[in-house]
Design a protein that fits this description.
The protein has one domain. The protein starts with a helix and ends with a helix. Helix 3 runs antiparallel to helix 4, helix 3 packs parallel to helix 5 and helix 4 packs antiparallel against helix 5. It is elongated. The protein has five helices and four strands. The chain is mainly alpha-helical. The strands form two sheets. It has a two-stranded parallel sheet with strand order 1-4. A two-stranded antiparallel sheet has the order 2-3.
Length: about 140
Amino acid sequence: MSEQSSRPDSLKPASTQAAAGRTPREDRRTSKLGIASLAIAVITLLGYIVMASFGTAMIEPYVTPQGPVTELPKEALEAMTTLAAIFVFVVALNLTGLVLGLFGSYNKNSKRAIAIVGAIINGVVLVTILGMFIFVLNG
């Protein structure tokens, strides 16, 4: 009996793992929260790339060699406001992906690898984007 208790969970018989309330390692499914987290990470990363290109294309006509134009047309302001609202939505979605990845990595009855990868990617992207945002604001 002491021989079984000193072994790691992966080497214990399935009946011992089931008695402990865990699914045997080979019977575990991939975490749905992890898959959602990884999908959100990819979607938000693409969203940031698209927003950067749109933002650059929108502001480029108003930057001159003499400096930025201070009087912007109403249409340009509306487009930039819409882009800012989409940015806030994508940041919130990125934060949701991070939380889903963290919750998925703590689920003992499913495989955790994809959840951990999703949480890491969401976290790195979120910290990078917010860092760049703060850098731009401080100018």
